[in-house]
Amino acid sequence: MNSSPGPKMTDDLRQMSVEERRTHFAARAAETDAALQRILGEERAGRLRQIYRQVRGPLAFGDPDVDGALGLDHGQKGRLRYLQSQYRNSRFMPGPWGAEQSERLKEETMAKILAVLTPAQKAKWSALVGAPFEGKIFIGGPGGRRGGPGGGEPFGGGMGGRHEGHGDH
Questions:
Q1: pLDDT digits over 118-145, tens only?
Q2: What are phi and psi for residue 75, nearest 5 degrees?
Q3: For a tag on the chain, would you pick the N or C end, based on fewer CB atoms within 10 A?
Q4: Are residues 112 and 71 in the same domain?
């Protein structure tokens, strides 16, 4: 199969079953992870994964490695999916949208998610995200000039160093 991006890859993906696509993307993710390990080394690659989870916030709870590490039960998974969908949907509501509003929404959703977790799961989550990242992260993309994560605005470090999910809620 052609693994380079482009029309051929798109056609190949469309012809795959859901399970074949899942397997394909899992293999691609494993290749990317192995390359990060090789290039950055184990410690820096691990820290990059922690920062990635911090940036994703509520959406990180849908990642298979987070789900597996936390050992979420069926009821918790349902509640978290509901909170994640509310978070996703609210970001597309009409009206002014800036980085500050986006950060506030993320923090509110994270507080609700952390309330669903047991103390042991909260401790595991804190280990999965590590120490708060204090720098700025630029998240570009199709959002253009729109504020907030994904809208070409810097993200992180702008809320007085306060970040969700680090045992301070």
A1: 999 999 999 999 999 998 887 666 554 4
A2: -65, -40
A3: N
A4: yes
**Cα–Cα distance measured from residue 69 to residue 125, given in angstroms and rounded to the nearest whole number:** 8
Determine, yes or no, domain membership for 167.
no
Domain count, the chain: 2
The answer to whether 109 and 86 have CB atoms below 8 angstroms apart is: yes
This prediction has a pTM of 0.68
Closest CA to 128 of 47, 34, 42, 44: 47
Residues 6+ apart with CB under 8 A from 27: none
* Residue numbers of the domain that contains 29: 1-40
Residue 138's DSSP bridge partners are 154
Long-range (24+ apart) CB contacts under 8 A made by 74-77 are: 76/116, 76/117
Tens digits of residue pLDDT in 139-153: 666 554 444 444 444
**Residue 20: inside a domain, yes or no?**
yes
